[in-house]
Every structure is written in C-alpha cells, then in structure tokens.
User: What shape does this take?
Amino acid sequence: MIQELLAPIREHFGQHPAVLAYLDRVQQDAVENSADFVPGEDDEHWWQAWERMRRQRELSRFRVNPFVTHEPEEGAPVLFEENPTFYNLFGRQAYRGDFGRMETDLTLLEAGALQRAEGGFLILPADALFASPGAWEGLRRFLQTGRVSIENLGEQYGALPTVALHPQPLSVDVKLILIGSGWFYRYLWYNDEVFRKSFGIRADFETEMERTAGHEAQIAGYIDRVARKETLLPVEDNAIAAIIEQLSRWASDQRKLSARLLLARQLLVEASAVAQQRQTTEEERHITDRDVEEALARIRYRQNALETRMDEMFRDGSYLIDVDGQVVGQINGLSILEDAGYAFGRPNRITARSYVGERGIVNIEREIELSGPIHSKGVGILQGYMTGTYGHDFPLIFGASLCFEQMYDEIDGDSASCAELCALLSSLAGIGLNQGIAVTGSVNQLGQVQPIGAVNEKIEGFFRVCEIRGLTGRQGVVIPGTNLSSLMLDRRVCEAVKDNRFHIWAVSHVDEILTVLTGMPAGSKEADGKFTPGSLHARVYDRLRQISQLARMDGREAERLRRHRSTSTPLQRFHRF
Assistant: This one.
C-alpha cells in the first residue's frame, strides 16, 4: 500500500537519486512503525494523552518542510537583507519546549537569505554585515565552497555542546552584492584574498547629478509622488523650485543637484507641516516656497545651538574680531565648524608679526601641535612663495610668526593660506589691511588662488557677524574665482549684495587680494628685477633686504666675538663679560 502511494513521487523525482534513496527509507520506516499511524482510543488517563502526543511528534519526521519555494512566473528573486546576522543569512534551527526540555525536528528548520535567493540576487549592507558576529566568517566559507550549512553558533562558540540536527549542506547559486563605503572595499581588497577574488566588480555611486532640465523634471515628479503617497498638501511649482535650489546648495554647485533625495523628502514633509499651521482655509492651503524656507529655518534652529552661542560671543565682544578699520598684520580668515552634520562658518582673527631672525615663518599652531598636516603644508607653501618672489638677488633671511587668535582646537586645511600670506606681507610692508573684508582661499607657490570647500557657509558666517556688529556697506568676502559656480547663498545675503550693503570679490591671484585689502597696487617685477616703485611688493622687498642685511651683520658680529673669545685668556673673557 505504501509503495503504491509513493509511486507518483518516485516517478516525478526519478532523475534525483538522493530523493529516491530518501523515499526508500521513508517506506521502510513507515512499514516498521505502522502502528504509529493507527488512531488511538479516547484518552482516559493522562499517560494515554501523553502517548498520543508522543506519537504525533514522532510522525513529524514524515512531514515535508517546503524550505524554499520559487514561483516560475515570478522570475529570479532579488532580496535585500537589512539585518544580515548569521542566522538571517544561513538559516536557523528553531526549538520548542517540551516539559522543561528543548527539542527540534526538521519542520523547525528555517531558510536564510542565501537559500531564499537561490538562482537570484542577494543585496547586503556591508557595515551591518561586519558588525554581526560570525556573519562575515560564514560568508567567506560560502564564497569558497558555494555550499550553505545550517549551524548553531552555540556549537561553535559555546562552552557546552548542544543537541541539534545537522542538515546536509546545500549548494546555492546566488549573486552577492555588497553596498557600503569605499573604505570597506579598499580595506577588504588589500587585506582579504577571498574578498578580492569574489568581489571583482566595483561600482562607484555618485552623490550628485548634473542639473539638467531632465533631472529637474524627474525630481519634480519624485516630489509629487512623495506628496501623494504621504498624503501631504498639494505642492506649488515655486515650492518644487525651492527644493531643487536646496538640492543644488547641498551639492555646493550651481551646475549640480544632490542625489540625497531622502533629505528632499524630509524637507517636503516639514514644509507641509508648516503650511498646515497657517491660518487659511483648506482650499487655499498649499505648500509654497515660503513654507520651504520656513522649514529650513526650523531645521537650522533645532541644530544651531553652538552657532548661536558663538554669535553671542561676537555680540558681547568676548570673541575679538574687527569688521571695520585697517590694522597692520591682521586679517579675518574664514573657517568652517561642523557639529553632528550641521556646518556653519565663522571668522577667525589671523595675526602675523615679522622680525629680524633666521627662523623663517613660524606656525604657532604647529609649535603647540594644534596644526593638522594640510594646514602645516599650507604654511610651508608660504615659505616657498616668499623665497620665489623676493629671494632672487639676496639671501632671504627673516623671522615671522603666524597665529590663529583665540583658537584652542586643532585646525586643518589650507583654505586660510591666502589670508595668512596677506597678513604676513602686511606686517613686512607696514601697510594696514581692511578689517571689513574677510578672505578665504588657498594659495600655491606661484601666488595663484585655488578653490576651497564650504564657500557658502563661510560667506554667510562672516555676513552674520557683520550684521551683529553693523553693516557699513564696505564689508565683504574675497573668494577664489573658481568657486563662483559653488555660490548658493542665503536669500538675505543675496539681497544685501544686490543692495550694495555687502560685497563678494572673486580673484585668481594673491595680488588681486592685496589690492582689495589695501587699496594700493600690488606691483609687479620689472626688467631689472625690482618691483614697481611705491607698490606693496616694493615695500616688502625693501624690508626683507633690510632684515637680511641686519641678520648678516649680526651674524658676522657674533662670529667675530666667538673667534675673539676662543683666543683670549679666562681673565680677559671675565673682564669683557
């Protein structure tokens, strides 16, 4: 009878010897234990009920556990496992309680993501994968063997053995895709041979896209879909335009758009909440560009506690800064501060002092180990500029010190090198610099101004301080000309520039900055090697020649005294002292 029942199954799986061998064992087991299939009489005693339950559990070995099922019309599976723990990847063996003990059987075996993705694709987040104990080690074994085993981590790491089933390993054909930072990829590529052999295809994803009419239309469609899906208020065209403008600001480029659309979605949701709070009728309630601006202002307000505290220091004068007048050897540089993802700019007073000496340019921050390597490189470039510009016909011997005043944290980056150079040249020439003009940009040894990052935040940071101290109409910021396409400024700054209450100068060479800051020509080198008479460079050149002559005279006098002391008697040296 059992053989007849199994015949259709044997015919269906005739090409699988392992299945046929399994059916032979099923047939033999069923015949030998046929009494377990006979229903018992009504349970009169507890031991009879317990025996019935025992027989039912015993019969579970004849059940079929559909481990993985794929419908033919659904195509290859594509799975994204957000939590790639060991058990979620390779499957698990569950347990049930039975009178104080834990037991299991084949019906409690559960497939993992690798088995469910058989014949398809499995996408895993790399950071979560490496944070899960045992997950990467198990995945490495799979990459080497192509087989997946359901194992109990307790057997591998536990002190005591556990009773568990040991299912036969399964051969799995799946395409693995890891999503993560470039740091993960580079680290594993250089340190893990299995990873290098298995993940040979690398695809870099840009966080920005070109700002084209097609991309703007796609983003507008995305915003409309989000508004309908989240049941938000209707979105007006000017609100969509404001969100697209903000995407360009997040990309820090007028020609590009940020691909971080999740931020755009969050902004849209908050703008809808702002619009709902307005006292208007339901028919008039729409999301406008003003709602988007108000949402951005609220987001900044929730995050700008540190910025507000620093504004108070500028207001009460505890942070020393000048935004008017002229001072020799002093300039306002611009830096960026980031607090848990919120970035804002602030001005920093940079001072320079020059003197007779041989130490060259002394970076005070470096002396006390508060200067990062890129900032130290920028100061080193200044030495190269000075030597190449002024040291063509006499040894350049001078001493100078540069300092970020009231800066007590480590600084890095070279975006202050233009400001540092201008402060140094002002100190040497004895010419004051306009304190109402801040400078940002890096400089190379040829005096060319190079682009920097976060230019919008830096300009807005200085504008905010000028507003606190009082706008005079003569204030502004000097930026590299190559950063013009990066300008995506706040509306208040744009209106102030339009009304000539604030100014922005775009330059390409340090000479242009010196002219803006001093109001006098920087000058150029003439055929005889001298600089234009009366120019700033001419005054610096004359001062450096004077310092070098004094340093050489002092050096010759020191050498003469040294030689004299070496030939005089102890009593003579005493009298001379």
Q: What stands out?
A: The two ends are 125 Å apart (CA to CA).
